[in-house]
Amino acid sequence: MGKRKEYKEFIKKLRATEGCQRNFWYSITNQSDIDFLMERFGGFHDSVIISANYTNGCWLSDGSITMDSEKEILSLIFKSQWVNPKLELKFIGIRRCNLIGYQDNYSSEILNCYLSFFDGNIIFANTESFDPENPMSDKLIDEDMTTFAIADKLNWRFIDIE
Description:
By secondary structure, the protein is mainly beta.
């Protein structure tokens, strides 16, 4: 198969967003759901996180603090070079997150990712070599750090926002 034909087949696979409703929330509850998302978004290959929004699940009411893990939310929006439209991941009941910004000699492009269940949580990381047993790799500040999110639940949708 020639290079051009291989490229066309690759693009055809990445147009797998067909059959997905835009702005409709899908839930990740099992491995099949993970596989479905990974197929639809090309395994996150050549994508970047373009936006992050965190909402704390705590609030003050009459001098006391109230907590609700269902309201502890991290929303990440991704843009891919291969898949249109944008993808939003909504982590509910966020347990831990690590967002990495600018790093010398590294781009923020995602080539592959880790998306899996572990110890009753769902984990996303911007590299498939992520180790959930040692998420910070014993480094607090270092080059080649990993962005990751660990949560109770994960929902996703394709969105058309600019």
